[in-house]
Design a protein that fits this description.
Distance between the termini: 45 Å
Number of strands: 5
Structural class: alpha+beta
Order of helices and strands: EHEEEEH
Oligomer: single chain
Number of helices: 2
Helix content: 10-25%
Shape: flat
């Protein structure tokens, strides 16, 4: 007899986590991220806000911000995105 156990596997598209300081720098003093939709990870959400990632003339537009705010800003992109932006990703 087999046990049918399901393990959710998800793929995450490029996104940005912002600190409080960077939310205010980008969107204005006192701005709060607005929830567009809740994510499967408890307490996390796709925000209505988006940002553009730029390196010189290279740009990726409308990258989703994921909330809630974090202690430190973090950008999550694919290796293909890094190559497109001409940056060395770690």
């Amino acid at each position: 007899m087999t046990d049918d156990k399901r393990i959710p596997i998800e793929v995450s598209n490029r996104h940005v986590h912002l600190s409080r300081k960077d939310v205010e720098l980008l969107f204005g003093t006192g701005h709060r991220l607005k929830i567009s939709k809740n994510l499967s990870q408890p307490g996390q959400f796709a925000a209505e806000e988006t940002v553009n990632l730029m390196n010189g003339t290279e740009k990726i537009e409308n990258v989703r911000v994921v909330g809630p705010e974090r202690d430190n800003t973090q950008v999550e992109i694919s290796m293909t995105d890094a190559i497109g932006l001409s940056i060395e990703a770690l």
